[in-house]
Amino acid sequence: MREFVVEADGGSRGNPGPAGYGAVVSDAATGETLAEAAEYIGVATNNVAEYRGLLAGLRAARELDPEARVHVRMDSKLVIEQMSGRWKIKHPAMKPLAAEAATVFPPGQVTYEWIPRERNTHADRLANEAMDAGRRGERWSPAASRADLDTPSTAPAAPAPEGPPGDATAGAARVRAAMASAAGTAQGRGAEDASGEVAYGEVASGAGPAAERGAGAVDSDAADTHGGRAAGASGDGTSGAAPTGRASGGRPAEHSAAEDRAAGAPGEGPAAGTGDGAGKGARASAVSRPATDTPARDAGADADEPGAAVAADADRRAAQAVATPSSGWAPADMGAPATFVLLRHGETPLTPQKRFSGSGGSDPSLSGIGREQAEKTAAALARRGTVQAVVASPLARTRETAGIVAARLGLDVTVEDGLRETDFGAWEGLTFGEVRERYPEDLDAWLASPDAEPTGGGESFAATAARVAEARDKLLAEYRGRTVLLVTHVTPVKTLIRLALGAPPEALFRMELSAASLSAVAYYADGNASVRLFNDTSHLR
């Protein structure tokens, strides 16, 4: 059976405004371009143009081979999530388009994947060519198209990552570069122990799927505000810095994804397709650390110069250590890592109401359910006996949760202001729908960029991340080599996980975090970090 890749895009210069779409069908095995389609469609919204592009791409693929398997890749989070069935479709102009797209191939023959905008340049160029042609009063012509020629065949090399301790640093890039040469050797070592799984203390032994999937809420506390910002950017899930327009005059960021989310709430449900965590009994282990740390070499160094072979060999050995980890995470001289056990506070009365509840609102205390969750967490941590200190956000719900746990452990609670939740400004106490009704433009801007602030001088997610990173570094210096329980909120927990993984900002919005869930990150003396647990709620069952 043949396999095709369909990449599609659409744009509107005004949203709504003059719009067009582009789609390209390529051979999944060779990458060869098999068909292109583009059209100026008059005045329409970004989302409608994207759906039209999807339809054109699927139809082109069907003309090539109606029996083929098709993998659709788009930078519209909205279209991908709706066509995958994870988000509801409410917009009347998109319902018939989605229904028609679902019938082009039989069910199960098409799969969908969101990709960053920079990986969808071919379809993007086609859409812009169509809009340019429409502006001239012409139809798009395949013969005149330069989209395929202007699309880079390979992605530019990524710069070596930099960052403070706790972020993924340059060593990760060196290891990734050597993985290809190590893969063959790793396959021949199948008899060796490749588990490499480590948890904080013993808590990970009970890790399992989240017991409380997607209370869906907004709290960044009441539940998970990040779900409302699908993929951390605009309504279409564009990654990275939110665009205000295409380089060649294309669409501005889309914002209607929030309107079309399942249940219409900014909770964890619709955006968290993998929110139940790993499989039952699984551990969230990070990649193993290489047994040898060698300085990163200049990427432009000549392979024949003195020392090049030694450095290359060290990189291969480092890659092999990742591909087939040994029983330990670090060399013997690395010392014990500082381990942050991250506890999201228990439920508050706002949690089931799905309301924004950050650090600038009413500061609710735990509900009866939330106190019960804190007691169960305390019992679980007492059984493990690994926590040596307790640090909490200054908000009432975290201090109350921390107090219950600390009393059971016989420890005091230290308050760290940097662990507080994001300030949602005038949105505090409102549901997502209420914010949409009262502050639509501000919400659109917030959905489009992590640098945007909520109405009334709230705090952006970018500002929250900087504050949390500063608190992390302070605590790492204070609790070097110790296991510390940090009782905090959704945004700080997800931010610490994201930074430890070296993941981009949009990763923040692809994680589900339940009330009273446990996560864990270990920080090593060389500046690296490993995520050992995420969103574990097994102790609540």
Write the layout of secondary structure elements.
Layout: E1 3-12, E2 17-27, E3 33-44, H1 46-64, E4 69-74, H2 77-83, H3 95-104, E5 110-114, H4 121-135, H5 147-150, H6 170-187, H7 308-323, E6 338-344, H8 368-384, E7 389-392, H9 396-409, E8 413-415, H10 432-438, H11 440-448, H12 461-478, E9 483-488, H13 490-501, E10 518-523, E11 529-536
Helix pairs in contact: 1-3, 6-7, 8-9, 12-13
Biased composition (Gly residues): 266-280
Pfam family, one: RVT_3
Region (Disordered): 131-174, 207-333, 350-374
Description:
The protein is built from 13 helices and 11 strands. The longest helix is centred in the first third of the chain and has 19 residues. By secondary structure, the protein is α/β, with parallel strands linked by helices. About 32% of the residues have low confidence. Helix 12 crosses helix 13. The radius of gyration is 25 Å and the shape is elongated. Strand 2 and strand 3 form a beta hairpin. Pfam families: His_Phos_1, RVT_3.
Provide a short characterization of the protein structure:
31% of the residues lie in helices and 14% in strands.
Spatial order of the strands forming the largest sheet: 8-7-9-6-10-11
Beta-strand content estimate: 5-15%
pLDDT < 50 stretches: 153-220, 227-333
Please give the largest β-sheet: 6 strands, mixed
Q: Give the topology string: H per helix, E per strand.
A: EEEHEHHEHHHHEHEHEHHHEHEE
Helix content: 25-40%
Task: Give the strand tally.
Answer: 11
Counted by DSSP, the helix tally is 13
Distance between the termini: 46 Å
Question: Could you say which structural class the secondary elements and strand pairing correspond to?
Answer: alpha/beta
Instruction: Look at the structure and give the mean pLDDT.
Output: 73
Q: What form results from the Cα inertia axes?
A: elongated
Work out the radius of gyration. 25 Å
